[in-house]
Fold this sequence. Notes:
The structure is a homodimer. Chain A is mainly α. The first copy, chain A, has helices at residues 9-23, 30-37, 41-48, 51-74, 80-96, 106-113, 119-145, 155-172, 179-192. Chain A has a domain at 60-192: Orthogonal Bundle (Tetracycline Repressor, domain 2), CATH 1.10.357. In chain A, helix 5 runs antiparallel to helix 9. Chains A, B: Residues 6-66 form the HTH tetR-type domain.
Amino acid sequence: MARPRQFDEDRVITAAMETFWRHGYEGTSTRDLCDSTGLGPSSLYNTFGGKRELYLRALERYYATVTAEQVARLNEPGSAKERLRAMMLHSIDSDLDDAEGRRGCFAMNAAVEVAALDPDVKSAVRRCFDRVEDELCAVVGAGQAAGEIPSGRDARALARLVQSTYYGLRVLSRVQDDRKALLATVDSTLADL
Amino acid sequence: MARPRQFDEDRVITAAMETFWRHGYEGTSTRDLCDSTGLGPSSLYNTFGGKRELYLRALERYYATVTAEQVARLNEPGSAKERLRAMMLHSIDSDLDDAEGRRGCFAMNAAVEVAALDPDVKSAVRRCFDRVEDELCAVVGAGQAAGEIPSGRDARALARLVQSTYYGLRVLSRVQDDRKALLATVDSTLADL
DNA sequence: TTCGTTTTGAATCAGTCGCTTCAAAACCCG
DNA sequence: CGGGTTTTGAAGCGACTGATTCAAAACGAA
Lengths: 193, 193
């Protein structure tokens, strides 16, 4: 029928996600995106529509990959608290790793930078957060069923408490390099469950 | 000796802070700053040096005003838990208020958007966070002395736990409008102390 | 009033912004 | 191979970026 594309759409979105993740929405120019994806501007606009649409696609990709990994990590073998700890530990170590560029959590970055200005971004970010919350809830529920966590309190409420502390720690990790202090807070949270 | 300035430097910094706060660092242009401050570009550059320096001054101003208000709110009359609750409640209501433009916490915005790229911004933000942490620690200590909070655990550790949950809630408030759910998490945190 | 100093506004710098246009190239189907 | 369709690269759109220049204006001190 017609000329086929020379690029893999998934690869392009992944490359765009990396760029947005590292430099933010306003900090990323269309030329940056062309450079990192290897696409010319016409291909980029022809395929995705524009910078904003590509950003939304990048957030979807984040949900499908990184958020999925977080969920998977919560479902690895171990007690409920061990699994909660593993997820938080992994994120903190990732946040503090210079080799990863200290880019933090892409969904959180989008929440802070763009969510107030763009309802679609807000929805995409909430989708990530809600998915994590649901899985935290499941893990807490399992812990309660196993007698590891007291059943007196609502699993959802406990999950939200863990979730808040978790994202708070990821904020602090942007300016606070003391890994031990962050880990101590993780353990305080788990001890309270 | 020479021609005096036609503007009040404090007013200019405050106006610049509002603009940076609302639109972020990259989202604010020098012309935006000229418009909001009323200064011409030459006056602005002559006085402050450039956009980055003005941003740092804006962060200092945030510390001197908003962070100071948070600290003051922690020192109002009432029990320790009442004071902790008052601070968190005030911030959440501020975050959810459309009339305030849903701009969140300027220090947190700076932490997420700029801190990784600019050590001076990182320091300025940490100054805000550390000030809040210290005051939280004092309040927790007072609660322990009054018998309101068990003395078994380190006040500093408890303060950091509250602080993490606090900033986590402010992240969630960017995409989550359910005030009751956020407040429930505040109460869960306080109940655990 | 005159001098020396600083501030101010207007104009403008080269470079970049997000985005568009368009003709040539590349493909599949018949 | 020819016809129809899509993708591609290059060039460029007007607007805006952070920053600078410079002469005129506005003051205090002598």
